[in-house]
Amino acid sequence: MPTVQECDVLVVGGGPAGSTIAALLAREGRHVVLLEKAHHPRFHIGESLLPGNVELFEKLGVREQVEKIGMPKFGIEFVPPDLDYCSYVDFSEGWDPSKDSAWQVRRSELDELLFRNAATLGALTLEGAKVREIDFDDSGATVQAVLDDGANRTWRTRFVVDASGRDTVLASKFKSKKKNPDHNSTALFGHFRNARRLEGRREGNISICWFEHGWFWFIPLADGTTSVGAVCWAYYLKARDKPLKDYFFDTIALCPELHDRLKDATLVDDAVHATGNFAYSSTHATGDRYLMVGDAFTFIDPMFSSGVFLAMQSAFDGAKLVQTALDRPAELTAARQALEERMRVGPRDYSWFIYRVTNPTIRDMFMHPQNIFNVKQGLMSLLAADIHQEGPRYRRSLLMFKVVYYFVSLLNFRRTYAGWKRHRFNIRDMGMLRGETIMKADGAEAPR
């Protein structure tokens, strides 16, 4: 093989963002190389998809494959800590009733499916290839990677797409990664068998359960297992004084409804995982010869299951930018500006809700969803990932939701202020779990 291989586009990272953009560009006849440091199937959290993903799967030609591995999901259940009832919302209540469902999936299966699809469409895919260096010049970039067997490989490429997830290869290189000061959490999670689920059509719905130190997810999967995780403020995990498994079960006990659903369940492989969950974004997503997509550009709290959608949507949008950079460089400046603005829409919309979700006003609005000024339709369109609608109705209804929120907050000023103070206390930087770690139930770090 030649010492230096050439390609049009080199993609770093074989997750949903990287595999999607590699597939799209290869389908257009580009010579694409897709590098993934691990080997599929590999474990990853983020198992809940949104209706907005369905259209993207259709465009990739993999909808039927995803449907075969997925658990149908039609909406969301909200479980409060201080009420004796739960609230249910359906995606079909948004502005576009046709965006009424999605799936819960094992990410190991979904990610491998998308990665193999990129290869089918013509991308050269390579697993066990960790990128060590990317050097840019006036005509492209030189990318160096090391393989599992220690061999070094070098590519000469016209364009680089960073889809490395929370490794943030380019954002780290450019020192453009900025931690979000409004969010600082950690997550504990595991998979259970024989958990009690909702009945009928709601069986596959995600449940979001609030508790004193954060919130839980409850995600039923098609193989009969259920993913359960606690997203906690950093101080809570910092206070852990016992093995991770015991601490996780103690945390579950703080949510009576969830505890009851798991009373007859067993923990799969006796494994509990922990991960840092620090929100961040890069100061920019694009350059003349590079692009950052998915978590390589920005990461937000996973409360509304937006991660895979934002990753894939950024890949679809980014593929157009890459074509412009390669074929019509004179148009690149305007294209970059437009993409920079578009890629911030989703994270901004979701983050406004996520960073206020511990405030009693938002919680009340979720538990008592009313459609005054069409605010419920706007909220459900957001939760369904129908965020790039043409026309003003979505933006107007989302704006009215915020107006109602601020109005109610002012009427309950003391409660609002107390919630704000609690949030500021909770997001203190505890100096722990920087980056992603995974631990077994005995507390020892486990290999990825």
Give a structural overview.
The protein has 448 residues and is of the alpha+beta class. 36% of the residues lie in helices and 25% in strands. The protein has 15 helices and 20 strands. Strands 4, 5, 12, 13, 14, 15, 16 and 17 form an eight-stranded mixed beta sheet that branches. Strands 1, 2, 7, 8, 9, 10 and 19 form a seven-stranded mixed beta sheet that branches. A three-stranded antiparallel beta sheet has the order 11-18-20. Strand 1, helix 1 and strand 2 (32-36) form a beta-alpha-beta unit. Helix 1 packs parallel to helix 4 (107-120), helix 1 (16-27) packs parallel to helix 9 and helix 9 packs antiparallel against helix 10.
List the keywords.
disordered C terminus, 20 strands, 448 residues, single chain, 15 helices, alpha+beta, 8-stranded mixed beta sheet, 7-stranded mixed beta sheet, 36% helix
**Which whole number gives the mean pLDDT?**
92
> Cα-atom Rg, whole angstroms?
22 Å
Which oligomeric state applies? single chain
Distance between the termini: 30 Å
The number of helical segments is 15
Report the structural category. alpha+beta
Largest sheet: 8 strands, mixed
